[in-house]
Amino acid sequence: MTSRFTELAIDCADPRGLAAFWCSVLDYQVQEEGDGIVTIGPAVGSEGEHRPGPVPPTLTFARVPEGKTVKNRLHLDISPADREQGEEVRRLLDLGARRADVGQGEESWVVLVDPEGNEFCVLAGRHP
Questions:
Q1: N or C: less crowded end of the chain, CB within 10 Å?
Q2: Hey, what CATH topology would domain 1-65 get?
């Protein structure tokens, strides 16, 4: 048997605020909230309903005292599901993302950072 990717943990200063941002980005909802930890994931269907295909991973935001200091070694790549890349980038900027230059040069993806400075890429031409 192999392992499955089920959850990504992200250290942050404001778990609730960062979870709200990513819920808006991914159309996720809060699944669990505790002392300094918020977990988000896709909407859960009615009891007993099975989701076709692989289940997307949850994201867990955990409060930590230290701030981000360098470029992430791991980042999310997202693909617009119902609009073109430029439209999605504008939507994400309106949600609070900012453009970032990590030395990517002229590429087909756009690098943004979330409200706490975590880099992520918006891909072009890859629709899920």
A1: N
A2: 2,3-Dihydroxybiphenyl 1,2-Dioxygenase; domain 1 (3.10.180)
